[in-house]
Specification:
The chain is 40% helix and 8% strand. It is of the alpha/beta class and 378 residues long.
Amino acid sequence: MSGEDGGVPPERADAGTASPAGASGDPSIDPPAASVIGPAVAALRRIAFLLERGRADSYRVKAYRAAAGALLALGEDEAGERASSGTLTEVAGIGASTARVITQAVEGRTPDKLRETEETHGGPLTADGAGEALRARLRGDLHSHSDWSDGGSPIEEMAMTALELGHDYLVLTDHSPRLKVARGLSAERLARQLDVLDAVNDHLAPTGFRMLRGIEVDILDDGSLDQTDEMLGRLDLRVASVHSKLAMEPEAMTRRMIAAVRQPWTNVLGHCTGRLVTGSRGTRAQSRFDARAVFEACAEEGVAVEINSRPERRDPPTRLLELARDIGCLFSIDSDAHAPGQLDFPVLGCARAEEVGIEADRIVNTWPLERLLDWARP
């Protein structure tokens, strides 16, 4: 392992891992078992899944998901006829590239685009199996986003992909109102989202999987949380993160973060330094604060320090991760996924946790659901 964090170096960040999510990587709609279009839908969704894991631009990914939906809407007979006659591009949502994928899959061939995407993004995210043993012990993921805020996919697609990846639970943590650039949820929109989550869970109840009600709530300048107490009380779990004034003076930032950690609703301190180390958004220095004081507050309050697995974050830095370990903090290893394919990211955080010797039982998302929910209650 190389780099300041001992994690996956930036040049490997887009490699992706072999997904356990089946042929499609995104089974939000299951095609018929004996199907003309089933292989094509699987290929389109697998391509989308892999591109997401490689952090491709969302517009590229949406084309494949849109084509899969359009193909399913056609039905078997029309889809087969159009594939044979070369008229797929006459269907709204299917372009030349996606039509080529469909045609090759219907003909029983591995689509060229799928082969290319597997070669580019289908390899392991970590070298020599780093993090895989701990990743196998994770029961779920406590930080994810949907298209209700700044994610790229509907809630049900996030849920179904998490299920296919072997999760027992996934916490949906769309942003809070202050983060307008990310379409943060007002109390009213969050209440509507909870109704949608109830419907998704009713549908998935036979599987045993659970989509948990959560939020990534902004830590305001004074350390208060950017959502009403009434709504925070209706949630299963809350990730509190700083997204603004990241260059605040260290003393003020320390007071702000400690105040947030001591809020009765806070369960997880998200990407604590706010840094960016690589990626399309460029780099950003970490916030300055008294990490020992903040982590001691986390340990006292039972708040987990997030090991954010996004390749561009790798937050906290190794030095702070070791400090939180030594102080006795709990941890959560989260994807911070903004698309279904990014739900594979936790292996990166697991590799970092293994490297610094954090025991699995101190990682709250290795816990069974009921233990997690008991811990998260105020």
